[in-house]
Specification:
The protein is flat. About 35% of the residues lie in helices and about 15% in strands. Helix 2 packs parallel to helix 3 and helix 5 runs parallel beside helix 6. The chain has helices at about 15-25, 45-50, 75-80, 125-140, 155-165, 175-185, 220-230, 250-260, 275, 285-295, 315-330, 355-365, 395-405, 410-430, 450-455; strands spanning about 5-10, 30-35, 60-65, 85, 110-115, 140-145, 170-175, 190-195, 210, 235-240, 270, 300-305, 370-375, 380, 385-390. The protein is built from 15 helices and 15 strands. The strands form 3 sheets. The protein has an 8-stranded parallel β-sheet with strand order 10-9-8-7-6-5-12-11. A 4-stranded parallel β-sheet has the order 2-1-3-4, with helices on both faces.
């Protein structure tokens, strides 16, 4: 059986060991892993490795240096007399060198999404089901019924059964113990939340609960509730309560870290609506950061709302974010060039043709169909007769009309629509491609092209 030496750094060691444990048995080789005194393996060079490689183990048939290491590794081959293979760039692609499938499988996640239907008692059953279906389609695992404080929802049991009959998992967000009793009897599996106010009643509910402090900063009260629930064998998860910016946000994050350290093996939840709903900023980036913290701290569930217009897509954003966070944290991979669906405002990278390209294109075009471009702050319109350029779409179109006053109304509308998209692309930092939808990440709506709508025959102004 062949024997291989794998060389890596301290940061990648756990991942390499995990890959080799499975790979060695499936391929059939023995191995030794040499972990050198460097944090990031990508910084290793052949010369640096040689200075620290006192000797290689006996009977090594091949040396592998996985990671994004640079340099000429033939110098190590000459020094050791053993063939060396650098890479692959990501250690989880190592199986591909041996004809096996990479273990770098994107899309997995470990965080449960609980999506709250706000003011659920005010909705009809069909409205309730419609919103639950939408949340589930967007990635929700559990549908939370947000009740109205101060009221008692007499039909909560019927609402829970209605959702359960269609296959939904259901949780309840209320401190009204009577509502909870009826809802749990109908099949709800989780109650948000319990503290000293209502914990005595939860013993009879027969379902899991979320333990919270009496006041966000009062961790002593949280400890007391945890002790109460544990002594009565009530299943629970812990939520130290995330507070809004300006109301103790930073301190509340520290409390999550503190509770995770104090209770390393206990299930935890984070209610993230206090940040996404109460901060007037696009929610996608906020959701990603929060899901990353949850992944790192092993917080296994989040409660999200989708009420404010700027946060109405939070469920699908959390679904995308939990996959990206899992991939990054578990595989120790920077969350870049993996999944761009949360890049809604700006594109990852701008492409530019340059003025020389436009000059060459203008000299080669023979027809009157306009080609539109947008880059470096300028809109361009080219055909076989003219090349117009301006940062102002109105000025650009005026020049086009002067050159060709016979532009038909339908085509003028098309050009106006395209120039509007082009101007938006310039303003936001996006790539514009004529006759194609701007890319808005997960919000992108594909367009039917102008050619498909009109066809080339019978439309002398159609742009190919």
């Amino acid at each position: 059986m062949p024997r291989y030496l794998f060389i890596t750094g301290k940061l990648a060691e756990p991942v390499v060991r995990d890959v080799l444990k499975t790979l060695s048995s499936s391929v059939g080789f023995e191995y030794e892993l040499l972990v050198l005194n460097i944090t990031v393996a990508a910084l290793m060079t052949p010369e640096w490795v040689m200075r620290r490689l006192e000797k290689i183990p006996d009977k090594v048939d091949h040396i592998y240096v996985p990671g994004a290491c640079q340099g000429d590794w033939s110098v190590l081959e000459k020094a050791t007399g053993v063939s060396v293979t650098p890479g692959p760039q990501d250690v989880r692609d190592l199986p591909e060198l041996f004809g096996k499938k990479s273990t770098l499988d994107y899309g997995k996640y470990s965080i449960e999404i609980i999506a709250e239907i706000n003011h659920a008692p005010a909705l009809t059953r069909e409205q309730l089901l419609e919103q639950a279906r939408r949340f589930k389609q967007q990635g929700a695992d559990v549908i939370d019924l947000g009740c109205i404080p101060g009221n008692t929802w007499l039909e909560i049991g019927d609402a829970v059964r209605c959702l359960k009959d269609e296959g939904f998992r259901v949780s309840l967000d209320t401190f009204n113990v009577q509502e909870v009793a009826w809802g749990c009897e109908a099949g709800a599996e989780l109650v948000l939340s319990v503290s000293s106010v209502n914990r005595e009643a939860c013993v009879d509910w027969g379902c899991e609960v979320v333990a919270i402090p009496d006041q966000p900063h009062d961790l002593k009260s949280l400890d007391e509730t945890i002790e109460f629930l544990a002594s009565r064998q009530v299943p629970y998860r812990i939520d130290p309560v995330l507070e809004p910016i300006g109301m103790g946000f930073g301190a509340s994050l520290l409390r999550y870290a503190e509770i995770r350290k104090k209770y390393p093996a206990f299930a935890m939840m984070m209610g993230i609506g206090n940040l996404t709903e109460l901060t007037e900023v696009d929610s996608a980036g906020v959701n990603l950061i929060l899901m990353a913290l949850c992944q790192e701290w092993q917080i296994s569930s989040v409660l999200t709302t989708a009420v404010a217009n700027h946060a109405r897509s939070s469920v699908i954003e959390c679904d995308i974010a939990r996959r990206l966070a899992y991939h990054s944290v578990v595989y120790q991979r920077i969350p870049k060039k993996v999944d761009d669906r949360l890049l809604t405002l700006r594109d990852r990278k701008l492409r530019a043709f340059g003025n020389s390209y436009f000059e060459q294109l203008a000299s080669e075009i023979r027809d009157r169909h306009y080609r539109l471009f947008a880059e470096t702050g300028t809109l361009h319109a080219l055909n076989g007769e003219s090349h117009f350029a301006s940062s102002d779409p109105f000025q650009l179109f005026d020049e086009m009309l002067k050159s060709d006053p016979s532009i038909e109304a339908s085509h003028a509308f098309y050009l106006g629509y395209e120039l509007c998209k082009a101007k938006l692309a310039l303003q936001l930092g996006k790539n514009y491609v004529q006759d194609q939808a701007l890319r808005w990440g997960y919000l992108t709506e594909e367009e039917i092209s102008h050619r498909a709508r009109k066809g080339q025959e019978g439309d002398t102004n159609a742009t190919p």
